[in-house]
Each structure stands twice: as C-alpha cells, then as structure tokens.
Write a structure and sequence with these properties.
This protein has one domain: Porin. The chain is 0% helix and 66% strand. The protein contains no helices and eleven strands. The relative contact order is 0.23.
Length: 207
C-alpha cells in the first residue's frame, strides 16, 4: 500500500558559474574556473509526496514541492520553483521496526514560476544608483535564469512510525545538472541547494 504525506522546511541555496579553461600559454596564466560572487540565500520549501514499495526496503517516491532559491547581496534575488523530484529510496528497517533510517537519490525537474529582485543597483547608462523591488524581468539586474532546471538529488534522514502516522526529518542536496544561464557571464551556471525537511505521512489503508 502506498504512503502519502507532506513536507515543510527550509532551504539554503547559492548560484555559481563554472568555466572551462583553455591550456595555459605560459606558466603565469590564470584562469578562474568557478565564480560565486553572491552570498547564499535562505528560503522555504513545502509540498507533498507519495511512495510505493517495489520490495519492502526499496521504494519509489514522487514529490511535488514549492521551493525558494536564489542569493542575497545587492540585489537580493529569489527564484520561485515548482519542483517534481522522482526518487529511489532505501529504507532497510521498513516493515521490521518502527524506526526508519533511509537514504535516497534521483532527479528533480523544476519549473521557475517567478523571479523577484530587490535592492540597490547601479545603472551604467545613467551612472547612478537606484532602488528596485519587483520582477526580475523588469529589472536591469539580474538576468532572469532559464525557465527550466533539472537537478540531481541525494539525501537521507531518520523517522519513526507511530500508530497515528510517520514522522521524519531529512537533509537533501539538489544541484543543477544543466545550465540555468541568465547571468550573461559565459560558462555553466547552476543552482546549488540544501534542504532540511520535516515530514508527516500515513500508509493508505492502515487502521
């Protein structure tokens, strides 16, 4: 019987760009292979899940989550995603003990539904600073990232199966497998995120 439930928690995210360096023409040549000029940001994540056991300790899990990502400096930028991870979960104590100790991996396709920016920026055309708060699409900064993202997921956690349902806490790393672009700097730009999630669920049909 499938398990269904929900998650809520926080995210710690960053955005960085990696570059391919050509072979050096002299020993003193310097090539920056990674750029992370912005401080990370904190946000929220919440959503639902359904799991189905292939065999008792191995489950297929599908999530549907709202996730905030981005970075915080000048400007403060938030990417708002709807994310649909598909995971393979290994839970060796499932069915044998109320304790749950699990690990999982998979992929997380995501759609950016909104990008918001706020802060003080500098307009190179007018040579003046200005304040802005609103959509990234209407701002001179930053360039809006690609609409779609595809992340690789690894994570794990622990829980306990009570009579009234299952409680669990987990940590999850999600990192872009594709270039989300939008920064105008060349190279490959990715989201790098860590989630801490608290979940509650029940097995359908369980008395």
């Amino acid at each position: 019987m499938p398990e269904v439930g929900g998650y809520a928690g926080g995210t710690s995210t960053s955005v960085y760009t990696t570059y391919d360096c050509p072979p050096p023409s002299s020993p003193v040549d310097i090539c920056v292979t990674r750029s992370q000029p912005h401080e990370g940001a904190h946000g929220v994540s919440l959503g639902a899940y359904i799991r189905y056991a292939v065999i008792p300790p191995v489950m297929i899990e599908a999530n549907l989550l709202y996730v905030q990502k981005g970075y915080s400096v000048a400007p403060k930028v938030r990417f708002h995603y709807v994310e649909a991870p598909l995971l393979v979960r290994v839970d060796p104590f499932r069915g044998r003990s109320p304790a749950r100790l699990f690990a999982y991996g998979g992929v997380a396709p995501a759609v950016r539904v909104w990008c918001s920016a706020s802060g003080v920026a500098f307009d190179n055309d007018t040579h003046s600073a200005y304040s802005y708060s609103g959509s990234c699409d209407d701002a001179l900064f930053p360039r809006t990232p690609s609409r779609f993202d595809l992340g690789g997921v690894i994570g794990g956690g622990a829980g306990w199966d009570f009579q009234f349902g299952m409680l669990e806490i987990q940590g999850r790393i999600v990192r872009s497998l594709i270039d989300i672009g939008g920064r105008g700097e060349g190279g490959k730009t990715v989201n790098d995120s860590f989630y801490v999630l608290v979940g509650f669920g029940r097995t359908l049909g369980k008395p």
